[in-house]
Design a protein that fits this description.
Elements: H1 3-22, E1 26-33, E2 35-41, E3 51-53, E4 56-58, H2 60-74, E5 80-87, E6 90-99, H3 104-112, H4 126-140, E7 143-148, E8 173-177, E9 184-185, E10 187-189, E11 195-198, E12 240-241, H5 245-255, E13 258-261, H6 265-275, E14 279-286, H7 288-315, H8 322-337, E15 348-356, H9 360-367, H10 373-376, E16 380-386, E17 394-399, E18 404-413, E19 418-425, E20 433-443, E21 451-461, H11 474-496
Helix pairs in contact: 1-7, 2-3, 2-6, 7-8
Length: 497
Amino acid sequence: MTLRAARFALFLAAAALALAAAFRPSAERETATYEIMLVVDITRSMNARDYTLDGAPASRLQVIRARLPALVAALPCGSKVGLSIFTERRAFTIFDPVEVCDAYHVVTESIAALDWRMAWEGDSRVAEGLFHAIGMADNRGYDLVFLTDGQEAPPPPWTGGATFEGETGRVAGLVVGVGGRTPVPIPKFDDRGREIGFYAMEEIPQESRVGAPPPGAETREGWHPRNNPFGEMPPGTEHLTAVRESHLADLARQVGFSYAPLGTGADLAAAVAGAARPHPIVTLTDLSPLAGAAALGVATLALLARLLAGLFSTMKGRSLTRPEFLLVAAALLVASAAPAAAHGPTPQKVAEAIDIAVPCELIWSKLRDFGSIGDWHPGLMKVEATGASERGATRTITLLNGETVVEKLDEVNGDLQSMSYRLSTENLKALPVSFYTAKMTVSRPEGGASCRVDWEGRFYRGDTTNEPPPELNDEAAVTAMTDFFKVGLTGLKEAME
C-alpha cells in the first residue's frame, strides 16, 4: 500500500469512528448502587464551632451541609438517598430515598437548608435516636448514615445508657462522628435565634436525675433522702462539647454498624461503600467518548503522516528550519496528547464450583456457620468470628501471609441453602480488591449423585484509578479471588468427604 493510500484509509477510519460516535453507542455494565438514609443531628451542640471553612470558624452543622453534597455526587447513578433529622430521642424523615442523579439538586438543596431551628426539643438522647432510626430503616428497607457528635443531653444515668433491643446487624449502616476532640463551648441563642454567648456550667445538667441516685450522693451538699436524694448538682464539663468517639464506636458495635469520623465527601463515600449493602444494577455506559477519541487519534495520525511526508519530500537533505521544526513538534505533541478514552474501574466476577459426594444437608450445616470457614479453607491461618448464622455476623480472616480482612454476613437463606456476605474492612496486602460481595450456594443437580457448591464473587480491583499498578489491576484481582475460591472449595471437599 502506498503512503497516499494509507493516509486515505486513515481518514476513512476516522470518519467511520466519528459517525459511530454520533450514534452514541453504549454497552451494559454492572454497577454497585446504594440506598441510604442520611440522619443529621441538629441539636444545640452541633452549633459548636470547631471546624474551619474557607479560613473562617465553622459549626459542625455547617461542615455537614458543606460535605454531604460531595457524598451524594460520589454515589453512582441508580443509588438512592433520603434525608432525616435527629433531635430529642427520635429521627424525623424529611423525604424517603430518591434517585441521586435525577434528584441531585433537590437532595443538595434540602441538605443546604438544614438548620438547628428545626429541632422540636432541646434534649439529645443520641442512643435512643439511633435506635429509632434503625427501626424506621428496618421497616422501609434502606441503610443508615447517622451523623452526630455523640453528646447525650442530659447525660446517661450512672447505671448506663439505653440498650439496643433490636436484632444486631439486621440493618446495615454507618455512624459518623462529627466534631473536634478538644472540648469547646456551646453557642447560646435567644428566642429569636440571635447568638447571645455560650452556655455556662450551671445552665446545663451535669448528670442524669433519672433512676436511683449515684453512690455517694448522700455526702453532697443539700442531700435529703426524700426531697433531694441526688443532692446538689455536681460540677462537670457537659457545657463543653467534643466528639464522643468512644461512645459512638460502642453504639456502632452494639447495632452492627461501622464507625468513621467525618471526613471529605470522598472519605464518606468510601466509608458508605464499606458499610452499606450494595445493590448491583445493570447500566448503560456511553461509548461515544471512546469512539470520538479514537476518531481524533486516527485523524491526527493521518494529518501527521501527510505533514511529515510533505516536509521530508521537500527537504532534499537539508535540515529542518525553525518554523518547520516547531510545526513537526506541535504535530507530535497533538498526536501524543490525543485522548486515550480513560475509564474507571469495572466490576469483575469470579464463579467457581465443585461437586462433593456427601448429602447437601451436611455441607449446608457446615457453611451456614459464618465462622466455620477456618475449619475447611486451607488458605487461612485463623478466623475470629462474632455471631453464627445471623445477619450482621462478622468474621476476621487471617491469611497465610498474616494479613487480615473483615467480612460481614448479609443474608442466610435456609430454603435456598445460600449465604451472601461482603467485604467490611479491606486490606490490599491480603487481597488486591477494594470491595467485594460473595455468595455460596449448596444445591443438588437434577439426577446427580453428588452435591454441588457454587461460590461466586463480584468485586472491584484494588486500585480504582484509571492507571492501576500491575499488582492492583483487574487481572491481579481476578487471579487472587479465583485462587481463593478454588483453594477453598478444594479444602471444603476434602474436609467433607
